Every structure is written in C-alpha cells, then in structure tokens.
Amino acid sequence: MITLEAYFDYFILPILAISVILVFIRLFRGPAVVDRVVALDLIITIGIGIITVYSIRTNQKVFLDVAIILALIAFLGTVAFAYYIEKQKDD
C-alpha cells in the first residue's frame, strides 16, 4: 500500500517541479506582458501548492497561513495589473 508521504514524494512534488520549469519558460519567452504576468501568477499558485504539500508532509500548520497570505498577495497583484491594463485601454 502506498503511503501519503510516498505519494507526495514520487507523484505530486515531481509534477509541481515540472510545471514550475514549464511556467518559467513561458515567463522568460513572453511574448507579451500579459503572458508574463499570467505566468508569474501561475508560479505563485504552484508555490502555494508546494507550500501546502510541505505543510501537510511536516505537519506544521503555520505554513498554511503563509500560503493563504501569499494567495491574497497574488490576487491583489493580479487585480492591480488588470486595473492597469484597463486604464491603458481608456487612454
């Protein structure tokens, strides 16, 4: 029987690591600023997933608070960028 720790180590974390690498490629290649902002937002979301897996794995609930704060900051950054893009369209 597969334990939860083995599932994290051999399945979830490698998938998250591969996805971070692919999103970094999108972040550097662009082509538009919007693509880069979406890639940065996705990196933060994947980071939240990694923090959550680490929190469950080590049984430290403090990291879940860090993940929630990081999610709120990422959301506010996305809203600010959308507001910036909308302002540019008006001008």
From TrEMBL:
<feature type="transmembrane region" description="Helical">
    <location>
        <begin position="37"/>
        <end position="56"/>
    </location>
</feature>
<protein>
    <submittedName>
        <fullName>Multisubunit sodium/proton antiporter, MrpF subunit</fullName>
    </submittedName>
</protein>
<keyword id="KW-0050">Antiport</keyword>
<dbReference type="InterPro" id="IPR007208">
    <property type="entry name" value="MrpF/PhaF-like"/>
</dbReference>
<keyword id="KW-0472">Membrane</keyword>
<keyword id="KW-1003">Cell membrane</keyword>
<dbReference type="Pfam" id="PF04066">
    <property type="entry name" value="MrpF_PhaF"/>
</dbReference>
<feature type="transmembrane region" description="Helical">
    <location>
        <begin position="62"/>
        <end position="85"/>
    </location>
</feature>
<dbReference type="GO" id="GO:0015385">
    <property type="term" value="F:sodium:proton antiporter activity"/>
</dbReference>
<dbReference type="GO" id="GO:0005886">
    <property type="term" value="C:plasma membrane"/>
</dbReference>
<keyword id="KW-0406">Ion transport</keyword>
<keyword id="KW-1133">Transmembrane helix</keyword>
<comment type="similarity">
    <text>Belongs to the CPA3 antiporters (TC 2.A.63) subunit F family.</text>
</comment>
<keyword id="KW-0812">Transmembrane</keyword>
<feature type="transmembrane region" description="Helical">
    <location>
        <begin position="6"/>
        <end position="25"/>
    </location>
</feature>
<keyword id="KW-0813">Transport</keyword>
